[in-house]
Amino acid sequence: xxxxxxxxxxxxxxxxxxxxxxxxxxxxxxxxxxxxxxxxxxxxxxxxxxxxxxxxxxxxxxxxxxxxxxxxxxxxxxxxxxxxxxxxxxxxxxxxxxxxxxxxxxxxxxxxxxxxxxxxxxxxxxxxxxxxxxxxxxxxxxxxxxxxxxxxxxxxxxxxxxxxxxxxxxxxxxxxxxxxxxxxxxxxxxxxxxxxxxxxxxxxxxxxxxxxxxxxxxxxx
Length: 221
Ligand SMILES: Cc1cc2nc3c(=O)[nH]c(=O)nc-3n(C[C@H](O)[C@H](O)[C@H](O)COP(=O)(O)O)c2cc1C
Prior knowledge:
The protein is an alpha+beta fold. The protein is about 25% helix and about 35% strand.
């Protein structure tokens, strides 16, 4: 993972990580080896980028009003050891789905067929200070996107979208947090860690949260 100071924009205006394939030491890996981790939060922290590193992408699935899952890619803004945070527009479909049904699934895949993390959990409204902090770390491009990514703008012809963007960016190089900027904090009740192995089958460890803490079981990949 490449590191960058939290408020320093990267060359990539989207400021998302194209993660390098991790090197898995299968003899000691907590999923592939004979020694499993008891704490899935610590394991997730060891897999995910540190707070000063570029963010990873994840698929967030919600349940729509017709009961169908709806999936889309978002940036995983942060995992603090307890909650997976992502940020979006408060008027988006996903925010609408979550307000009616906070049950969500998250899925994160690492390159090179190495790792996958799947989470089931409940999405809560993220605290205002976390939401503001995540916005502050967004690149200028993503801050401008948070303002201009509206249904009205999307309907404009390309020329007007380009000129409108240019004019907005010229007068708002780093726009303040818009009112519609929203954050969700997903608390996991189930976490599945998948690790491949070129010399054996892939394998998963499933963790379920219960009253007595996390239970775990080994599953085929
Ligand atoms: C690589 C990538 C990263 C994205 N990151 C975000 C994000 O962090 N937040 C967000 O709201 N949408 C993000 N999007 C756009 C979403 O995938 C989606 O199109 C948008 O949020 C509307 O989704 P909805 O209508 O289902 O709510 C991203 C898309 C891609 C392809």
